[in-house]
Amino acid sequence: MSQTTADPSVSCAPAAPRRRLWRLDTLWLSTPGLIYLAVLLLLPAGALILLSFRDPATGAFDLSVYRNLFAAGVYVKTLVNTFVISLQVTGVCVLIGFPIAVWLAGMSERRRRMAMWLVLLPFWVSPLLKNFAWIVLLARKGIVAQILNGLGMEGGLDLLYGRGAVVFGMAHAMLPIAILTMLPTMLAIDTRLQPAAMTLGASRGQAFWRIFLPLSMPGVTAAGLLIFVMGLGFFITPALLGSPRETVLGQTLITQVQKLFNMRLAGALATLLLVVTLLTIALYDRVFGMSSVSGQGAGKSHHGRLSARVGNALISLCAQVTDAAARVLPTRLSRWSLTIFVWIILFVLIVPVIAFPPMAFNSASFLEFPPTSFSLKWFEAYLTSAQWTGATVRSAVIALAVGALSTLIAGVAAYGMARSRSKLNGLVFLAFLLPMIVPNIVIAVALFYVFAQIGLIATDLGIALGHTLTALPIVFVILLTTFRSMDWRLLQAAATLGASRWQQIRMILLPLVKGGTIAGFLFGVLHSFEELTIAIFVGAGVKQTLPKQMWDDILLSIQPTLAAASVFVIFVVTILFVIAEKCRPR
Amino acid sequence: MTMTSPIFESQPATSSTTAATLTATTSARASKLQVRGLAKTYGPTVALDHVDLDVHDGELLTLLGPSGSGKTTLLQLIAGLTEPSAGKVLIDGVDQTFAPVNKRGIGVVFQNYALFPHMSVSENVAFPLKMRGMASADIAPKVKKVLETVGLAHAHTRFPTQLSGGQQQRVALARCLVYDPAIILMDEPLGALDAKLREIMQIEIKRIHRDTGATIIFVTHDQEEALALSDRICLMSDGKIAQIDTPRKIYAEPQSLFVADFIGQSTILKGRVAGAYLETPLGPMPHGHAGLKDGVAGALVIRPEDMRLNEGPYEGQVVETVFAGSDLRVILDAAGCAIMTRAPASFDPMIGETLRFGWAQGAARYVPDDHSDD
Fold this sequence. Notes:
By secondary structure, chain A is mostly helical. Chain A is about 75% helix and about 0% strand. The radius of gyration of chain A is 26 Å and the shape is globular. Chain B is α+β, with helices and mostly antiparallel strands. In chain B, about 25% of the residues lie in helices and about 35% in strands. The two termini of chain B are about 35 Å apart. In chain B, strands 6-7-8-3-9-10 form a 6-stranded mixed sheet, sandwiched between helices. Chain B has a 5-stranded antiparallel sheet with strand order 13-12-11-14-19. In chain B, about 45% of the residues are buried.
C-alpha cells in the first residue's frame, strides 16, 4: 500500500471544485538547466562542427578541411598519439587503481573514511599543480634522479620529456578518479559472498577471482571508460612533461586557435575528438551496457559472448596462479605486499601536495627539492605582484559566482528530479552529465568560437559562464544525492502537525539539505578555481585566472613565485575541500 | 494472540454499511468523520472505489486489508495528503475535502514515524505547538507531560537516530498527542517493531485511547492486531469496504468468503447451491438460507474451534501438525479440502494417519463466494 502515496505525476479526473485539475511533473524544474546546456554546450558545439563542414566563402558543404587534415601526416600522428596515450593511461589507472579500491573496500567504515582523504585530496588538486610538481621532482638534477643515482641506476637522468613521463603524469593525475569510480561497486558487493564461496570449497584466491572480481567489473569498466574519454581531451601533461613527439590533439587545438586562428581546422579536430569519444561510449554501451556507469543494475550482465569467454579464461588463469603462489608463499606475505604497494601509491599520489610548501619557502632563485634554506621572499613576490594578485582575485570572484550559479541551476533541477517519477528522468540525468562526457577542450573551443561572435571573449562573464557549464555535472550529482536521501514524508508529517508550506521549507527542508547544498556550492567553487582549459580559450590571455597565470609561467619560465602560488591554491583547495566533505551527506 | 478486546458496543451493522442505516442505528453517538463516495484513481488503477464510511466520536477503528486494498489511500485522503478523484470528507459535519493538511487538525502517526532527524525528541514534540504559535513558556510543560505519558521523559534531549524503534514509535505518538487532535490517523505504526514490542505498544495505544478519548483510525494488515485493538474493524478489499463490524462479529459472522478467509484460519468448503444444499467436495450439506438460486457459488466456513477431531461423519489424512504451545493445530486433507482443526497439545498424530472429523450443528456458516470466476 505504501506505493500509493501522493503521486504528483498523475493527473486525476476532474471531479470537484477547489482543486488543480492537472499538475506539472516536478521534472519541469530542470528546464533552466537544460536550456543552459543547450545554449552553452549543444549550440556552440553544433556551430563548431557545422563550421568545419562548410566552405567559408560559399557556405556549401565542404570536406576540404578533413581532406587536408588526413593528408598531413602530423595531424594523423597527433590523433594516433592521443588515442594510444589515452589507452596506456587507462590501462595504468585501472591496473593500479583496482588494488587500491580493493584495499579501501576491505576496510571498516571508519578507517575507510580516514583513508579516503588520501585519495580525495589529490582528486581535488588540479592536474596542472600535480604535473608542475613532477617537473621539479623529476628534473635532471631533481630528487628522484638523485635517489636513483644513489641507488646506482644510470637511467635516472632522463625521466622527463618522454612517453613514460606523459603516461606517468596523466595516470597520476587521473588515478583518484579511477579509484573513486570503482569503489562504490565494490562496496555494494555483499561481503558474505566470498566466505560463502569458501564454504563451498573455493580457495581464498578462487573466491576473489571468481566472485569478487566479476561483481566488481561494472565499476572497473566504468572507470576505464571515464579515464579513456577524459584522456582523449587531456593536454596539460603532454605539454608539460612530454616532448614534441608526444603532441596530442588538445595541444594542436590550442595552436590552431590561439596561434594560427584556424577555426575551421580546430572545428574539424574537435569534431574528430567528439566522434571518437561518442564511438567509445557507444562501443562501451554495446559491450558492457551503460547501466554500469550510473551504478544502477550492477550485476546485470551485458557481456558479449567473446568478452565473457576471454574474461572467464583470464579469471581461471589468475585463480590458478594465485593458488599456486598461495601454496608456496604464506598468506600473510601477500597481504603485506598489498598493503605496502597501496601505501607507496598513496604516497606518490600525495607527493605533489606535500612537496610545494618546502619549495615555496626556499630562498633559492630557482625551484629545488629538497629546499636548502628558509625564506618568505617568494610569497612576498607573489603578494606584491599585481599580475598574480589580480589573477587570484579574479579567480576567486569568478569561482564564487560559478559556485552560486551552478548550485542554483543544479539545485532546482536536482530537486525536480528527486521528486519526479517521470520516465524522462534518465535522459535528463544524462544531459546534466554531458559537460563531463564531452571533452573539456571541445567545450572550450566551441565556447571560444561562439563567444567571439557575441563579445564574450576575454570577459570575466564569459569565463564564469563556461565554468558553470563544466561545474554542473558534479554539483548536480551532489545535490541529486542530497535530495534523493531526503525523506519527503517529513514535509507531509510537518503539514499534518500544522506547518504551512513556507514553514515546511524553512524548518524541515532547508536544515536537512543545507549540508549537501553547501558541499555542492563549494565543489562548484573548487572546480572553477582550478579550471584551466576554458580559462585559456575564453580568457584569451587578457583576463588571466590564477591557473591560467600559472600555466603561462610554467611554459615561459619556472620561477619560485609559482611554488608560492601553488601553496596558496593547495591551501584554499584543502580548506574548501575539507569543509565540503564534512558537509556532504552520505 | 488471544487479546481480543472486550466489546464496547456491538452494532447490528451489515456489510457495506450504508451511511443512512448506520447513523440511524447509532444516533446515540455522533459521527466524528464522514466519508462519502470517496474515490481515488491513479491513471487506470483504482486505488479507492467510492467508499462510504462513518467513524464515531471517540472510537478506535482499524482499516484492515491486504496490501493494495486501498486502506492507506483512504487514510491519506482523510489526512489530506492526497486529493480524491471524487467524493467528500466531512469532519464534525463540515466538508474538509480540500482543506489544506495543516489546517485540518488531524494527527497522523506515520508508518516509519517520520521524526525530524535534525531535531531532538523534545523539539520534535514541540513542533506542532510551535506551529500553532504557542509561547515557548507554555510549550515546555506540555512537552514534558506528554513525554512522561509515553515514558520517554528521560530521553528528551536525544535525537531520533539515537533511539530504538520502540522509542521512536513513542516519540511519534507523543508528537501527535501533544496538541490533542480530535482525530488521530495511524498508518501501520507498529509494522517495524518486533512481536514482543508490538504487543506492548498495542496495550499502550489502547490505554492512550481510553485516557484521551480521541478518535483513532488505525491502518494495519495484521488481523490479530486489528482484532486486539479495535472497537470496530473496517475490512477492505480491492478499494472497497468488504465489511465493517466489531471484532467479534466480523470473526463470528463473516459476510463473504473474503472476510471469512482473511480473518482467522478456517475450513472452507466451496461448492454450488442445489436447493437447500450446497454441493461440496465432502458431499451435499444444508446451507440454511432461504431464497438462494441454484448454481450460485458459495462456501461453508467452519472455524477450527468448532471442528471436532476423532468424531464425526468424515475422514481425512493428516498432512501437517503445528505445535502452538497451548494446543496442536492439525491440518487434514479430505477430498482435496484443507480441514483446519485444533487438538490438545498432548495429541500426537502421525503424518498420513487417517482421522475422523465433524462439526457441531450450526457451526458451518454459509457465505457467498465473491471471488468465484463465473
